[in-house]
Amino acid sequence: MFGGIFEKAITATISLGMMLFSSYQGNTPSFAQSRAFSRSNQITVQATLENAFNEDFRQILQSGHSVAIDFTLTLRSQQSTEIISFQHIAIYDPLLCTWELTCEEKNNRTFTIDSWNEFANANSDFHFQKTHDMETPIEVNLVASLPTVTMGQNNKSFDLMIFWNYHKPYCNVIIL
Fold it and tell me: What is the pLDDT of residues 25-81, one digit of tens each?
């Protein structure tokens, strides 16, 4: 019952936003505090998304649908290139009023969070570690994006990138 009500409200919010696209002000997210380093064949990449999750985005997540934030990490040296994809998968439980967040780059660690601010902070945090055999220098590139989701009884598709002004935040770091 609640799912249907939330779904209608979310569909209306997105539809209105798309109709008024020229006046809709989404966020322009970016990565802050990005850093990467290598020690003893262990590479670590850390970055934090800023300005990524506004109130409209919160309403989408509260629909009860699973929403993924996509991350693409590229590690490039003179000898090789490795491209790794991750997701942060978020789902809201309207009965418990909690957020469940699974972070694939953290070995699929799942967090249960009861505050929007804590959820937004956890969803913004990217932290990855992996053993590697690449020679330095290593160019590290991290890109985030949002998917297109299907919602509503008529299965309308909505590109969630509208909430980020169709801007994919990225960061580049060179490990010497």
Answer: 778 999 998 999 999 889 999 999 999 998 888 888 888 788 999 999 999 999 999
Residue 46 CB contacts under 8 Å (≥ 6 apart), including other chains? 33, 34, 35, 36, 126, 127, 128
| DSSP output for 58-122 | HHHHTTS--EEEEEEEEEE-SS-EEEEEEEEEEEEETTTTEEEEEEGGGTTEEEEE--HHHHHHH
Cα–Cα distances (Å) from 47 to 52, 127, 148, 164, in that order, read 13, 7, 24, 17
Q: 76 lies in which domain range?
A: 2-175
How many C-beta neighbours within 10 Å does residue 35 have?
A: 12
**Number of folded domains that form the chain:** 1
Per residue in 139-161, pLDDT (tens digit) is 999 999 999 988 767 778 889 99
For 10, other C-beta atoms within 10 Å of its C-beta total 22
